[in-house]
Task: structure prediction
Amino acid sequence: MSAVASLKAPFFDSVLIANRGEIALRIQRACRQLGLRSIMVCSEADRDAPYRETADEFVCIGPSPAAQSYLNRDAVLAAAVTTGAGAIHPGYGFLSENAAFADAVEALGLTFIGPRASEIRMMGDKIAAKQAMMAAGVPCVPGPDTALSEDLAEVANVAETIGYPVIVKAAGGGGGRGMRVVSSAHELAGAVIVTREEARRAFGKPELYIEKFLQHPRHVEIQVLCDNYGQGIWLGARDCSMQRRHQKVIEEAPAPSIPADVVARIGDRCVAACKQIGYRGVGTFEFLYEDNEFYFIEMNTRLQVEHPVTEMTSGIDIVREQLRVAQGYQLELSQADVGCFGHSLECRINAEDPFTFAASPGLISAISLPGGPGVRVDTHVGPGYKVPPQYDSMIAKLIVHAPTRDQAITRMRVALSEMRVEGIATNIALHRAIFEDPSFCRGGTDIHHLEKWLAERR
Ligand code: ADP
Result:
């Protein structure tokens, strides 16, 4: 009898949601639809969060600074134990990719809704991740899958073999920090020394690696979903090339003008890699895509902000499926059940000045949200909501879906014209302007496009 057939009861029937904002509400909705008890935690700044009303339990775990609440492992675990939670969903950010936290959750006999700690740890070390991906046949950026030698002459030889420009990256880096582009041999030694020191200070890990610097890539990623029994599927590709300072601003699915068979090939590779490393839950393989080739850069071992565009094109509720596989159910979908229908776009609506990007927390005095066919808004805010200054500035995700990319763009323009937020500044005006940019509207712009476009407008 298989492990699945012997599953007498799901592993849990209550979930502590260790996050805040729109994603906390998104996860709460999925829990409620599955009949799971939702236990929400909050910091003092989020005591009046609107999702409090619909939570089964709502527990304050500490003061406003994230380090003392959402990032405080002991406080989250204590809340889980006292409320009798059976599982913890970490959402994204905060503790979601913290292997020690995942270990601590499971040590208490609770389910961590995510992969095993060993896979989180592996993907958190970019050298280990690259080694695992190369071994699984996932294409990586040219360059060795080993840490850089301390010997600068040896490093120079490696760089020469790869060919300039190269990029020196910290194995423990994240959030776009701990990397340096080197365009010629005479800059190399300095870049290695500075980046190593930065890596030691910022990530407590001095290991570096080096790879080819791709000059005009797009950011294309593959969403995967795996169960506990070695089954896995990929749900499509997303293009997240519209970035500012390595932060995604607009995401879409599918990735424009990449042939379906090319996407399918890389998707199958990602699933094969998941099977090889025993991955479970949802995850995202991030690639740079240039001249019709994919190059793996990292894997995110959690739910991502941009998951809705894949939900819209696949028709699959990713958070529901994530909860179901974590409960111990076998994946009900096979690869043949997964399609890609129409086109979806997502704008991240941030509480910030649309052109200086200065944060703009404070009271939302009035808000009107767009609607109509193919329009979805994932948000926890409403009129009278006070955007706290302590956290990420994203207040909403505006998502549209339509049969074609052009129709989705039109739908987004209308939705953006309907959306009003008063009392604080938002980047809605920036999105309206981007949706008039002919290059973006044609599709397929690279990861530098948005910054160049912004610089030209200054
Ligand atoms: P992080 O974990 O800090 O986000 P990534 O490895 O995902 O680091 O890289 C972040 C961004 O840096 C990428 O989206 C891309 O813009 C740029 N980048 C990283 N590696 C390369 C490379 N080899 N060539 C060109 N750009 C790169």
Residues 185-203 form the longest helix (19 residues). Residues 287 and 296 are 4 Å apart (CA to CA).
